[in-house]
Write a structure and sequence with these properties.
186 residues, Chorismate lyase, 7 helices, 24% helix, globular
Length: 186
């Protein structure tokens, strides 16, 4: 079996954001899920330059089926998948998974493929025509995470997440972000 993630064993069960979804989420989760700006910038308002990105995994691969559907890419097409942990002062804050089709990387002049430890938000929120096209939400149980990730991110309770399809003009990318316990206390 081909590894598709270093975060979780299988694609989480995402629910499309619909009227009323917001009110079904805990208040702290609502705040993060419906944040319209960069989550990195929001973290920096609390932690300043202590916010760091650790790249857990990055490679070209076939995304999960639901990611392919959201991005409207054929099942045999590879995309760049990047998984990271945002943390500050020893606290794991957000786990993120980004799926970037090759056409989007070409459009962005390879900036999205060469992020290193730079936060994705610093790049995409600089695009003047960035648009949120679709939003999904999920809640994952601790056992859904790969053991190493569960330990690294100190996951011992359900984790809420959001999945956003962003448009950079006519090119799309998908960003899944999972709000760890310490981020919800901000």
């Amino acid at each position: 079996m081909t590894t598709r993630s270093q975060l979780f064993l299988r694609d989480p069960q995402w629910r499309e954001n619909r009227r009323g979804t917001r009110h079904q989420l805990p208040t702290a989760v609502q705040s993060w899920t419906y944040e319209t700006g960069s989550l990195t910038q929001r973290l920096r308002r609390t932690y300043g330059n202590a916010v760091k990105v650790s790249v857990l995994w990055q490679q070209w691969q076939t995304p999960f089926l639901s990611e392919q559907h959201r991005l409207q890419i054929p099942t045999h097409i590879h995309a760049l998948v990047r998984e990271v942990l945002l943390h500050a002062d020893g606290k794991p804050l957000i786990l993120a998974r980004t799926v970037i089709p090759a056409d989007t990387i070409t459009f962005a002049h390879s900036n999205l493929a060469k992020l290193g430890t730079r936060p994705l938000g610093e790049v995409i929120f600089a695009y003047p025509k960035l648009a949120r096209l679709q939003l999904d939400v999920c809640q994952t149980q601790p056992y859904a995470w790969i053991a190493d990730t569960r330990e690294l991110a100190q996951i011992d309770r359900p984790v809420w997440g959001r999945r956003t399809v962003y448009g950079l003009q006519h090119q799309h990318l998908l960003v899944s972000e999972f709000f760890l316990a310490d981020s919800l206390e901000i």
